[in-house]
Amino acid sequence: MSIEIADAEDRPEPGADADGTGADGTDVGASGVRSTADGGIVAQLRLDHSRLFLAPSLRRAPEIALEPDYWTEPEPGRTVVFVTAHGTDLEAFEAGLETDPTVADPVLVDRYPDRRVYRVTLTDRAVTFTAATAAVGGRLLDCSSCRAGWQLQLRFPDRDRLVAFNDYCRERDVSVTVDHLRVSDEEDDGVVALTDKQQELLAVAYEEGYFEVPRGISQDELAQRLDVSKSAVSQRLRRAIGELCAQTL
């Protein structure tokens, strides 16, 4: 019996079918690493559920704005999350942490004039979204609180992965609101376009002279004008300006 060996250029890459795709349909490059880098969908979503991670604490202090710093697993089965809280009602937020069923052992680890940093341990009663995002092949681009839930910016390789994430949420009665969707292309730099609220805030801030010296309007006045909290104004401004810088610099 003779065995024919294909030329290297005709041979499929390791882990790939003859057409150069992996078992899950992803492309396999010359290095053998599967790729979902080209194309895809970028989605901005708002999630709401009574047992969503830290949602009970956010309901106790809805003016607080939260930003997760990072997750870590110091030991098997125990996930610790560091979060930064912005706002003026931090005492109410801390009172909420003490009774929040989604977290345990809350600790204030840093205090600044405009924010505080906390460490919390995730409980098995919490509904989360990071593992589900990874499980369907998605990537978390950004995450921040929005009233009693979370606002996420996610990238999925294709529409089916986005649908799978939505199915995960629906099965757990997590409310999903789509704020923004766009198709990613080969030249995508990973930056999500400004949200409608960010655009509105920047427009009002610019028109009223917020960026002038001296300023024509304060963050307190912007908050009153837009009927939102000062912490929400501060957070939106930082994110909007950061995204504009990332796109232009």
| SSE-based structural type | alpha+beta
Radius of gyration: 22 Å
Number of strands: 10
The biggest beta sheet is recorded as: 4 strands, antiparallel
CA-to-CA gap between the ends? 62 Å
Shape: globular
Percent helix? 25-40%
Strand order of the largest sheet: 8-9-3-10
Which ranges are low-confidence, i.e. pLDDT below 50, for 5 or more consecutive residues?
Answer: 1-16
Counted by DSSP, the helix tally is: 7
Average pLDDT score: 81
What is the N-to-C succession of helices and strands? EEEHEEHEEHEEHEHHH
- Tally of structural domains: 2
Give the strand content: 25-35%
Overall description:
With 249 residues, the protein is an alpha+beta fold. It has two domains: 41-183, no CATH class; 196-248. The protein is built from seven helices and ten strands. It has helices spanning 55-60, 90-99, 130-135, 159-171, 196-207, 219-226, 230-248; strands at residues 27-28, 34-35, 41-48, 65-75, 78-86, 103-111, 115-122, 139-146, 149-156, 175-183. The strands form three sheets. The chain has a four-stranded antiparallel β-sheet. It has a four-stranded antiparallel β-sheet with strand order 4-5-7-6. It starts with 26 loop residues before the first strand and ends with a helix. Residues 1-32 are annotated as: Disordered. Residues 215-235 form the HTH cro/C1-type domain. Pfam families: BAT (PF15915), HTH_10 (PF04967). Keywords: Transcription, Transcription regulation.
